[in-house]
Amino acid sequence: MPTPPLAPTELRLAASTDLDALASVDVLRLLNDQDRVAVDAVAAILPQLAEVVDIAAERFRRGGTVHYFGAGTSGRLGVLDAAELLPTFNLEPGRVVGHIAGGHVALVNAVEDAEDSDADGRAEAAGLGPDDLVVGLAASGNTPYVGGALAAAREAGAYTVLVSSNPHAALAPLADANIVVDTGAEVLTGSTRLKAATAEKLVLNGFSTALMVAVGRTWSNLMVSLVATNAKLRLRTVRILREATGLDDEAARDLLTICDGELKPAIVASLADIAPERARSLLEAHDGSVRAALAAASTPSTLRSPNPEQSRTP
């Protein structure tokens, strides 16, 4: 059986062969130049990623879940992205889940051999079904833990996605969507925590944000599903309501109090000029979408759109 080609991330980068002879500022410039490669590589796969977002949104609306599987840096990035969705979008626990080879201890300590367990990946993907979507994260495209998860998910009818930096990824046959972010060789040979990981972070940021937009967790460019769990976020909640409606500070705070601190019913109540209870009913009837709730409200003010240039009370 022929030996598979070496992953591009394992090749040596000609531009960095004198890395240890460079001044610190030149090392940083070289790393920064290569980070731009990651950005361009992600730009090239956006149409393919958009298709995955739309598939995920359709399943999400049916009650499905999204799961990220990765080892090492890839796993940490998946766990990070999933964790940050909960407060930003008021996402229910279990809707987007990050899995890392080696478990939670691997978040802060290297558990290098954990990635070699196909069985662990299969075990963590147990219980998934046809409404779910699984994203395997592996710069090399060859990680057994990720392969086990993708295989089990596919057998259960889930939609499977592989994100790698290897056009010859061994796990590609297990993916319904094989997304190759072509970042090439690393400045430090084989260190995929550099631009391959930067590309993965960009892919995850784009995927999850676009998914949340698609399922109505935003309105305009505002975080209207935000959960105000600390002083900073409580101030932000007031600011968002003012931005969305043009209310002054006092009126915004009063309305938020009436709406139990929830932005969505406050925005719909203000813009549609209806009672908060009616606003909640419209939101519930339209899967929490502010835009759809406003369109359904039978007042002329529902046609108003957020205007970043609205006058604001300092």
Describe how the helices and strands are arranged:
Elements: H1 24-44, H2 46-61, E1 66-70, H3 72-89, E2 96-100, H4 118-124, E3 133-137, H5 144-155, E4 159-164, E5 177-180, H6 195-214, H7 231-245, H8 249-258, H9 263-272, H10 276-285, H11 290-296
Parallel strand pairs: 1-2, 1-3, 3-4, 4-5
Helix pairs in contact: 1-6, 2-6, 3-6, 4-5, 7-8, 7-9, 9-10, 10-11
What does the model show?
It is built from 11 helices and 5 strands. The protein is of the alpha/beta class. A 5-stranded parallel beta sheet has the order 2-1-3-4-5, sandwiched between helices. Strand 3, helix 5 (144-155) and strand 4 form a beta-alpha-beta unit. Helix 4 (118-124) packs across helix 5 (144-155). Mean pLDDT is 92; it is low at 299-304 and 310-314.
* Principal-axes shape call: globular
Derived from helix and strand composition plus strand pairing, the structural class reads alpha/beta
**What order do the helices and strands follow?**
HHEHEHEHEEHHHHHH
Overall pLDDT metric: 92
Strand content: 5-15%
* End-to-end C-alpha gap: 70 Å
**Helical element count?**
11
**Low-pLDDT runs:** 299-304, 310-314
Q: For the largest sheet, list the strands in their spatial order.
A: 2-1-3-4-5
Q: Kindly state the percentage of residues in helix.
A: 40-55%
For the sheet with most strands, the description reads: 5 strands, parallel
Q: What is the alpha-carbon Rg in Å?
A: 23 Å
- According to DSSP, the number of beta strands is 5
